[in-house]
Amino acid sequence: MITLETVQHARDTIGDTLLPTPVILDHVLTERLGRRVWLKAELFQRTGSFKPRGGLNWIRTASQDELAGGLGAVSAGNHALGLAWAAREADVPVTIVMPDNASHFKVEGSRALGAEVILHGDINDAWTLMHELVVQRDLTLVHPYDDPRIIAGQGTVGLEILDQVPTVSCIVCPIGGGGLISGLGTVTASLRPDIHVVGVEPADAASMAFALALGGPKHLDRVDTCAKSLAAAVVGENTYHISRQVTDELMAVNEDAIARAVRHLVQNAKLFAEPGAAVGIASLLESVNTLPTEGDIVVVITGGNMDRQEFETLWPA
């Protein structure tokens, strides 16, 4: 069960190590929309994304039995980096299975933090192998998004937004597996239910929309998007139920729109954001969401872990 109190406790648990990230005014979108658009710059968090919030909260609230055999995780990259960093802080071994198409930057970054990284198939194949390793090695699985301690940690982003932009009327948040929007939305539903919460997915990895259409989490047969950090083939049971209660609007953006949003952030906001972090901006540039008529907008820029090769595919010569 995720409540405002569990998110506030997570803030107390991790606050001595993970500092609040800044909000930055997007001048171009502010002028275009006629209202202030703020970027919650989670790419400036440790390891370059919001993920250490959940990872550190999980590690610091885990039992000795959970930690004893080491940890296991499946990740397209940012959860791997965040958990590897948090595990290193606690001197706990971690094994991470990543899909073959995972960013080389994130793979090597996770290894540099001490994680054992195994590349295996697509994201569904990676999950299959991890479940086998949990049994074989007696690992404790740390789910990237469908664990209450992870969700609570990610929800601290919402507490910071309310402190930093008290005039916010709309928050636009990327969705992969739904952990961030579940935690963030729990905060807004409790403290500011007037805030319009918009979730944005890649059209080619729209696992939350798929779940909502079918009445529960179901695996997408195929996930193919440049936004690898959002390439979850299925949302979680917890995140599905929480998200459907706290999300006011769910949008999808195509690959071209995501690439344009990455370029916008680099050119206009001077933020080197990865594709998955840019989907909220893509939705504003494409004008696909229904915004409240007044008040400030906050767009969560979830990470900046992108290598040169990945960037060049988004910025053709």
Automatic annotation (TrEMBL):
Pfam families, alphabetized: PALP
BP GO annotations: isoleucine biosynthetic process; L-serine catabolic process; L-threonine catabolic process
Listed GO MF terms: L-serine ammonia-lyase activity; threonine deaminase activity
All copies of domain Tryptophan synthase beta chain-like PALP, residue ranges: 18-303
Cofactor requirements of the protein: pyridoxal 5'-phosphate
InterPro entries: Ser/Thr_Dehydratase, TrpB-like_PALP, TrpB-like_PALP_sf
Coiled coil location: none
Record key words, sorted: Lyase, Pyridoxal phosphate
Keyword Lyase listed: yes
Protein name from the UniProt record: L-threonine ammonia-lyase
Organism the protein comes from: Aidingimonas halophila
